[in-house]
Write a structure and sequence with these properties.
globular, 20% strand
Length: 302
């Protein structure tokens, strides 16, 4: 039996639970509400209820973790259309995480109908039912994403949910997000909780158009991205625009993206490469941008 002692359920503000990662030193979810985050940062921004009116949907869940984002997606889709066929590809580094979520009965207070699906996915790594095909790929997501891209999988919705860029830069690089874009359907949408300028710059470098999603529990918004050429072709893909403050953030040194040319460098190497690029760039210091907007916002509030 796996050792689940390192995974201690942590209560969040909406009554749902999360874990703290000892490896990355961060919680898997926002303390404002783990369940709430999965719906409002991922299922809602990717417009799953509307997209569920199609006969079939394909989801790519990067950093499956406890399984909350996939759980929220399935609930959202099948509440909108019980007949929608769903295909899920999920990527996770550590299989003990979703297994610990099941062992600790973390879906017990969700009033959730699909525990059997999540249990089978956590322990067997695949589920095949009349209206669902799901697979959990265990390993470095940088390798798994290549396999998915080579298979021709095209996702209607992609959830990008790694630990924060300073802790897990490997999955926020230009090169990794380029791989994500290759797995995104022409009318698909990517959602992430991060609004970091480096992350948004990586989306832009990958040829995607970005928008801002409303804050959930905290001040910072999330980010959604679509293929640039789908922005005008499909009304479903109208994105919430970035504010002037957010646009100017992309003109500062914070917007120097993380880079991992061969998709196998260590976190330390990726961070050092970015720091060196920041030191030699001519972009505005981020501290100056922050001070300017603190003054502007203070003037607005007065």
């Amino acid at each position: 039996m796996p050792d689940f002692e390192q995974f201690v359920p942590q209560l969040t503000a909406d009554g749902s639970f999360t874990f703290t990662s000892q490896e990355f030193g961060e919680d898997f979810h926002s303390h404002y509400g783990a369940k709430q985050e999965s719906f409002l940062k991922f299922a809602v921004p990717t417009q799953l209820a509307a997209r569920a009116q199609k006969p079939a949907l394909r989801l790519l869940d990067i950093c499956y973790g406890l399984g909350y984002n996939t759980a929220a997606a399935l609930q959202t889709i099948w509440e909108a259309n019980p007949n929608c066929y769903v295909e899920v590809m999920a990527l996770e580094l550590n299989p003990s995480v979703p297994q610990a979520a099941i062992a600790h009965h973390l879906f017990g207070n969700w009033e959730y109908q699909y525990n059997e699906i999540l249990t089978q996915l956590a322990y067997k790594y695949q589920v095949q039912q009349d209206n669902l095909q799901a697979e959990l790929l265990i390993g470095d997501a940088r390798n798994s994403i290549k396999l998915i891209q080579q298979s021709g999988f095209q996702a209607d919705a992609i959830f990008l949910d790694p630990f924060s860029p300073p802790q897990c830069p490997q999955l926020w690089t230009v090169e990794f997000i380029q791989q994500i874009s290759l797995c995104l359907d022409t009318e698909g949408i990517v959602a992430t909780y991060s609004c970091a300028a480096a992350v948004r710059a990586a989306f832009l470098s990958a040829g995607l158009k970005i928008g801002s999603t409303p804050p959930v529990g905290r001040r910072s918004p999330g980010t959604v991205a679509i293929h640039s050429d789908s922005a005008n072709a499909n009304n479903h893909c109208i994105l919430p625009p970035l504010s002037q403050e957010e646009q100017e953030h992309l003109l500062t040194r914070a917007a120097i993206p993380y880079r991992d040319p061969q998709l196998h460098d260590s976190a330390d190497t990726i961070i050092m490469r970015r720091q060196q690029e920041q030191q030699t760039c001519t972009l505005e210091p981020t501290s100056r941008w922050r001070k300017r907007w603190l003054l502007k916002n203070a003037g607005t509030d007065s």
